[in-house]
Amino acid sequence: MAMETTTSERSTTDEPILRTENLVKKFGQFTATDRVDLTVRRGEFRCIIGPNGAGKTTLFNLVSGALPVTDGSIYFDGEEITTLSPSQRVRRGIGRSFQISNIFGGLTVRENVRLAAQSIGRDQYNAVESLFKPTDRYDEMNDRTDRILDRVGLADVADETADALAYGDKRRLEIGVVLATDPDLVLFDEPTAGMSVEETQETIDLIEEVLVDQTLLLIEHDIELVMELSDRITVLNRGQILAEGTPEEIAENQDVQDAYLGGMVE
Ligand SMILES: Nc1ncnc2c1ncn2[C@@H]1O[C@H](COP(=O)(O)OP(=O)(O)OP(=O)(O)O)[C@@H](O)[C@H]1O
User: Any idea which of 45-49, 105-109, 197-201 has the lowest mean pLDDT?
Assistant: First the structure.
């Protein structure tokens, strides 16, 4: 298989991990997603950009299963997932970061990660049943939780409640919670929204470091960041794919400049 090395340590293959075909989402008469054919290759860092209301979040909702499609198909890892539930998609390997809202503030850091780890491989609604698992499975789950806590740098604060964490550690926990679901693809909807320049850089560094083996799909408004991070960029406009390419190709694309970048970059 052809391998291509990018500027980061991540490596991209030719194999598509996610593919949408003629994807359509209508809200009444309004078409929010308009015949989108998207292909993301395994290992890619793909940013989705576009003006407000372009349909970026709607596209994520279709991929994660939060919204049913109006028409078209979604394939993940070569298999059709168009009608699978969100939890079935998580078990297939599609993780979605909801930032802080994924975290239970009253539980400890370790409990949060463990709960997320427990939720895969079984029906999420069987959380009570999962408390009564055989001991070897219990140990395996604890080991896995510890490895994730190490990976995201939270081993030292594992027994603190999530509410007591400093801001930066909360972001680490959020990424730990996503990682605990063992994803192959992670969707991030504006992970740096409202952050200072410093916090933005820290969060991005963390995502790049911890999720180096995952395919990343990220909605981001900060164009400079998008240009720096992406292997490829997809530009949405009025629900349609306006352009797709490497950062260099997108920067030079006249349609993008006319419709979007010209108005965005001051
Ligand atoms: N549940 C809904 N019902 C009706 N219209 C919706 C719904 N969700 C989204 N829309 C509309 O679909 C369009 C696309 O919205 P979406 O949130 O996907 O855009 P976006 O590109 O993520 O925008 P932003 O950058 O502002 O977050 C918008 O016009 C929005 O008002």
Answer: 197-201
Site to probe by mutation for ligand 1, drawn from 24, 58, 59, 222 as the one with most ligand atoms within 8 Å of Cβ, is 58
Q: Which atom of ligand 1 is least distant from the CA of 54? A: 21
Ligand 1 contact via 19 beta carbon (within 6 Å): no
Task: Report pLDDT digits (tens) over 36-86.
Answer: 999 999 999 999 999 989 999 999 999 999 999 999 999 999 999 999 999
Domains of the chain with CATH codes: 1-93+183-266 (3.40.50.300), 103-180 (no CATH)
* Cβ contact 51:235 at 8 Å: no
Q: What is the reported pLDDT for 238?
A: 93
CA of 239 to the centre of ligand 1 (A): 9
Please tell me whether the overall predicted TM-score, pTM, comes out greater than 0.80 for this model.
yes
Q: Nearest Cα to 165, choosing from 154, 175, 149?
A: 154
The rounded distance, in Å, linking the Cα atoms of 168 and 59 is: 28
Pairwise CA distance, residues 215 & 46, whole Å: 8
